[in-house]
Amino acid sequence: MAQAVEEWYKQMPVITRSYLTAVIVTTVGCSLDIISPYKLYLNPVLVVKQYQFWRLITNFLYFRKMDLDFMFHMFFLARYCKLLEENSFRGRTADFFYMLLFGATVLTGIVLIGGTIPYLSESFAKIIFLSNSLTFMMVYVWSKQNPFIHMSFLGLFTFTAAYLPWVLLGFSVLVGASAWVDLLGMIAGHAYYFLEDVYPRMTDRRPLRTPSFIKALFADEHVVVARPANVQFAPPAADDVLQG
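That's the Derlin sequence above. Prediction below.
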């Protein structure tokens, strides 16, 4: 069993493995009172006035207490983060890292701005950890890129992946969790999906092009499709040549 878990862990792509490790270490450390959550949560006053900039990162690493909700989010993180990095972002580690950076920035900005809006400030003031929202953002992006996959929720009913975020949002409401946390993830995920997939098709422009300094942090991973040996391919038909 331990060997199987070790192999599963080693086979994870680098960003998923690194983020999952940081999350588990941070959450376990807080549970054992080795790390104080008060040193991790998002506090705009402490960030600006006392230069505690690490809070902009650490608030994405803590998932509160280790309970059933924690296990659910670890499953979502390990599954959908891994699926995105291995499939949609295969060979594009820098682009995947930039997606997470974009999502974290959008989520932080929403919370900071929302905290200044009357009637909403009280709700946003309660959101001091954005780890759940970032995980939900990845679920949303995956669902947009794989909308026709058939899924089942706890064996109760089936649906396509396009509705997965809404099913999970409904489940969160039923168990008494704050809907704001999931909604923020959906907003950040839709912002990325629109700017990365929809807007470029409309305008031929790509505003979320990964900066070169981020690409320099990751070695290029070329995806090669192997051609079987000793296999001869027939020449294209005349109609295909004309259409090409």
